[in-house]
Structures are given as C-alpha cells and as structure tokens.
Amino acid sequence: MTASDQPITYASAGVDVHAGDRAVELMKESVRRATRPEVLGGLGGFAGMFDASVLKGMQRPVLATSTDGVGTKVAIAQAMDVHDTIGQDLVGMVVDDIVVSGAEPLFMTDYIACGKVVPERIAAIVSGIARGCELAGVALVGGETAEHPGLLGPEEYDVAGAATGVVEHGEVLGPHLVEKTDVIIALPSSGLHSNGYSLVRRVFGAAGWDWDRHVDELGRTLGEECLEPTRIYTKPLLELIRAQVGLHALSHVTGGGLAANLARVLPRGLCGVVDRNWTPPAIFQLVQELGRVPQADLEQTLNMGVGFVAIVSAHNAPRAMGVLAEHGIEAWPIGEVIDAADVPEIGEPLVQGAKGVDGGSVQMTGSYLGWSI
C-alpha cells in the first residue's frame, strides 16, 4: 500500500461543500415564493413538513404521488447554457400526472445531481422549479443537490422530482366513469414539452443544425423553441373539476404520445376515436420532414400539439371548453368514445395496452390540417 504524497480532501476529490451552501443562499428567494399556508418550517431542514390537518375535513382522503424527470431535454439546456426553464418542465411532468386522478397537488421536492456545483447554475434551475410550483399552486418544501465528480462532467446535471396530492375517494377520476358517447377534448401543448428529445436531438444532429440556428418557420432559434417550458395545466384543470361539468377522465400526453396515453384512461370494451383535426405547431412538422420520421413513430413519441386530454359527457362538452377558455386554455373536441365493436374498418391501427394497462383502445383518423404525411 502506497500513501498519497499529498493529503486528500473532499474538495480535492471534486466536491465543494461551500459552493453548495452558496447555491442554497441564491435559491432562497425563489423557494419562498413557491409555498402554501400549510408548509411548516423553512429551507434547510432535513425534511419538508406539511400540515396535514387540512385533510381532516375530508371524508376519505386519498393521497396521490408521482415522480419524474425531464429526460434528455437537459442536454439542450446545458448546450445553450440556459438553465432557468428546465425546472418548470420538471414541475409540469410531475404535478400534472397527479391531476389526472382528480387530485390537487400539494407539495413537491426536487433532486439535482451534477458533476460540479456552480451556485448560479443551481440557483437558476431551482428558480424554474419554484416558478413552476407557483403556476401549479404547489409548495416546494425541500430538495437535494448532489455533486458527483467522476460520474458526471463539470457541465452536466440531471433533475428529478416528486410530488404528493390528495383527492376525495368518491371524486377520483378514471376509466370507471367513462361512458359511450363521451366527448374527447384536446388541450393544446406549448410545444414539445419534455418527451421525445432523444428523437428530436438525433434529427437535428443528423442534419447538422446548431441550437443557435434561427429558423423562420419557428420565428426564433431552434434552441429557444426546444427549450420552451412545458405548459402546466394544474390550476385550469382543478377549476374544471370544481365546475362539475361531467368530467370523467383526464390524460396527460407524455411519453408514448396521445393515443397510448388516452388508452390508459379508457375502460375495456370502449374505444376513443380521435380525428386529427388540428395543425400541430411548426416544430413537429420540422422534425418529421427533416428526419423523414414515419408518422406512426412520430405519434408514439411526441405530443403533436396536444398536451392533455379531457373526457366529458357529451352534453357538457361546450361548458367544459368554456371553463377552460376562462382560464387561458383554448380547448377543442377531437373525438368521441364508442363501443369497441363499432370501430370502423378504415385501415388505421388500434392502440391499446399502453404501459401495462389492460384498458380500452384508441383509433386515430384523418390527417393533420395542412400536412402532407
């Protein structure tokens, strides 16, 4: 055994504890804005605390929890050295999964792993997380930043988060409420959101396009378009739930695309027939044309301009869309729920069994407006 010539410290191993402390100081103001009255204690505790006595008024409170990350979208943030938007993506991916069940998200924690703690960069990431929590009405009650030298490069990081919400047992949304003749309503996405970036990066990389390239069809640079933050639907959807408009199910259109995620909230024996009656934002056609991506692959990877789907009783559909419009979401009908035995033979495949859910099926029909594929 040969000892090192020089003493080995944590700092010489690549971990700067003082940089971590400075990052916490820089993020404090952002975190203060992302709170709720039920939060106990402040930043820096070993655990975030939330006063659960607020649940005492509920008859049978059911907790809902979700965890997620933002995938390879972080690679674009790192390449562009823009870090204050990726946090909103994280919040959207986590809290809007909770709303699908009809639950109100209450609090969230985050985790950032990096090769080197750069306080300003960490604070920028957390500022995006805090902003997302503000938009969702969710408290950011804690988090962790871990420095992993040798595992991640100095400029590399990844983010993850988890959230918890609550819903009355008798008000849980889902397949058990969906009925034949229900209307399927689409809520527009803000762009790519946080799914399919391995495909997107591969397409633009193969074409030799840089992230700072200005693209006329987009009206901005490619990187600015791809870093557009995920739309957070929490508050408008909670208002839709409270409006009692015959809402039966919700689906968050993330990995797997619209059809696969819609099928997850349909019961066996029923099929959602979806008309491609909209024009996806320009970024989707750009990916398709530049990479000659087959339509089936495109649709099972990207959201195609629809970030959420609501299933409501037919006679309540106009009112539901009105409620969403009042809260800044211009939704539109894209189909209906029918008996699976009545699905037309039009050569379009049925999508079912997504993510292990033995539920209903979805058939996409028609063509996107203005597209030639």
UniProtKB/TrEMBL annotation:
GO terms for molecular function: ATP binding; phosphoribosylamine-glycine ligase activity; phosphoribosylformylglycinamidine cyclo-ligase activity. It is found in: Cytoplasm. InterPro entries: PurM-like_C_dom, PurM-like_C_sf, PurM-like_N, PurM-like_N_sf, PurM_cligase. Its EC number is 6.3.3.1. It catalyses: 2-formamido-N(1)-(5-O-phospho-beta-D-ribosyl)acetamidine + ATP = 5-amino-1-(5-phospho-beta-D-ribosyl)imidazole + ADP + phosphate + H(+). Gene3D superfamilies: PurM-like C-terminal domain, PurM-like, N-terminal domain. Residues 51-167 form the PurM-like N-terminal domain. GO terms for biological process: 'de novo' IMP biosynthetic process; adenine biosynthetic process. The keyword ATP-binding applies. GO terms for cellular component: cytosol. Pathway: Purine metabolism; IMP biosynthesis via de novo pathway; 5-amino-1-(5-phospho-D-ribosyl)imidazole from N(2)-formyl-N(1)-(5-phospho-D-ribosyl)glycinamide: step 2/2. Its main location: cytoplasm. Keywords: ATP-binding, Cytoplasm, Ligase, Nucleotide-binding, Purine biosynthesis. It is an enzyme of class 6 (ligase). Pfam families: AIRS, AIRS_C. Residues 182-341 form the PurM-like C-terminal domain. SUPFAM superfamilies: PurM C-terminal domain-like, PurM N-terminal domain-like. Transmembrane segments: none annotated. Belongs to the AIR synthase family. HAMAP family: AIRS. This is Phosphoribosylformylglycinamidine cyclo-ligase. It comes from Ornithinimicrobium humiphilum. The lineage of its organism: Bacteria, Bacillati, Actinomycetota, Actinomycetes, Micrococcales. The gene is purM.
